[in-house]
């Protein structure tokens, strides 16, 4: 959705300026490494960055560091049909990247380019490669073909194998600062949105913030925040809130997502607190949330109502002990 190639010339996001400038300088001085890991948290636009860089590499006559948007190569790119760009993706979101796809990458890398210029392969998300796929990739990393650039777009570089990492140059894409993301988000989200709250709810990740507006998740998240405030102030009971969460009214949601929200609320409370005893309890509470999430994701089929009652009671208790 937000990570699609825009017509004519792909553009990176404004908070990626430093990474862009540095890489383009290396391209222009012909010292771009043959494999890059674009690493950093999800929802910050790394895939869009990879596409922008790919188009720049494939373009016949770049202008000011960017693809021109009008040459044959740029047209092939925007038509999503460039023979010298290979996207190595899982068949379904969340699934592993198949070893066949990585082998196809090997073939792609060993052939000469069809349009006579560079060849670019994007592996996304790179941490979806399992051990076998990673091993298959290593061969390409050891014997890269000429004018071939591999871009490993990775949300969790810690999950990449050490050998893969050691053969690539890491380019870090941290969560942008509010100063970096606010102007962009106000522009695409509209002036009537509470930008600070959106960035707070999305832990500073601008594309997730946008997703919150485009779906009704923002409304649900606000409802959860209200319920948590009511619990903290003893205006409601854990039992009543647990019933609402389970009945999916008004927080119609996957319990795992709701736990993530609760986690992010507690983390944000810890950040804004000044290290008194409560933050120790809050860290312990975060552990409970992690356990609860694991339980929900396991095959144990837990009683969700009881799970929520316990989590919400413990949430309320955090405020009693202050
Ligand atoms: Zn062009």
* H-E order: HEHHEHEHEHEHHHHHHHH
CATH topology of the largest domain: Rossmann fold
The CATH superfamily of the largest domain is known as P-loop containing nucleotide triphosphate hydrolases
Instruction: Characterize the main sheet.
Output: 5 strands, parallel
Bound molecules: zinc ion
Which structural class matches the secondary elements?
Answer: alpha/beta
User: Kindly state the mean pLDDT as a whole number?
Assistant: 89
How many individual helices?
Answer: 14
Strand content: 5-15%
Count the strands?
A: 5
Distance between the termini: 43 Å
The CATH C-level name of the largest domain is Alpha Beta
- Radius of gyration over C-alpha positions, nearest whole angstrom: 23 Å
Q: Strands of the largest sheet, in order across it? A: 2-3-4-1-5
Name the helicity range.
40-55%
Low-confidence stretches: 1-7
Can you tell me the CATH architecture of the largest domain? Answer: 3-Layer(aba) Sandwich
So what's the overall shape?
elongated
